[in-house]
Design goal:
With 203 residues, the chain is α/β, with parallel strands linked by helices. The chain is 25% helix and 22% strand. The protein has six helices and eleven strands.
């Protein structure tokens, strides 16, 4: 019996011995954490994980805040998935190979919702064309609405389960960071150098 046949035999035996997994626990929603002001707590948590949080009344203020940042003013390649608010000059759909995005300076995306508990933001990667752009870009900005700030991760996974996940998605919480070397925290070591989160009041 060659290796392929051996592998197939093992898989066939596994299929004939299906083990029923345990049922999910019943969640006491009354016991879950709820914040008096989830938006304020979200902004505080975002800051605590190394990102910068901006509360703005209108999405059109996002561009004004970005223009105050020297890395944005000096940027050569900007990809914006919020073209009505921030103008970009790089269309991610023009590249079949994400390696060509290695010189991307800024990426501006929309967050589906944020989580006050840990400052995480759910990103639907379908509009990105290349989900690698979230990690290749030097600087990342995420725009999320106040009304889409949830209290905790239980509510977040319920929201995902209700069909908001149209494709592959992921949670982003703060810029990239590592403390592997001499237990010293380094921000921006293997991903975006900074993360700017814009919490928009206007619906």
């Amino acid at each position: 019996m060659n290796s392929h046949d051996s592998r197939q035999a093992i898989l066939d035996r596994i299929r004939t011995h299906q083990v029923e997994g345990p049922s999910l626990p019943n969640i006491d929603h009354e016991a879950l954490v709820r914040y008096p002001d989830p938006v304020a707590h979200f902004c505080q948590t975002v800051q605590s994980v190394g990102a910068t949080c901006h509360r703005v009344s209108s999405p059109f203020q996002v561009n004004e805040v970005l223009l105050d940042l020297a890395p944005f003013r000096d940027a050569r390649r900007v990809a914006s998935l919020c073209p009505d608010w921030v103008t970009g000059n790089t269309d991610l759909r023009m590249y079949d190979d994400p390696h060509y995005l290695k010189g991307l300076d800024w990426l501006i995306v929309r967050g589906e919702f944020g989580v006050a508990e840990n400052g995480a933001i759910w990103i639907d990667t379908m509009p990105l064309h290349h989900r690698a752009s979230l990690f290749i870009t030097q600087y990342l900005a995420i725009v999320v609405r106040e009304q889409d700030i949830l209290h905790q991760m239980h509510a977040a996974y319920e929201r995902i389960g209700q069909g908001i996940r149209r494709s592959f998605g992921l949670f982003v919480s703060g810029p990239s960071k590592t403390a592997d070397i001499e237990q010293s925290l380094v921000i921006g070591a293997h991903g975006c150098r900074t993360l700017n989160v814009f919490v928009v009041e206007e619906t």
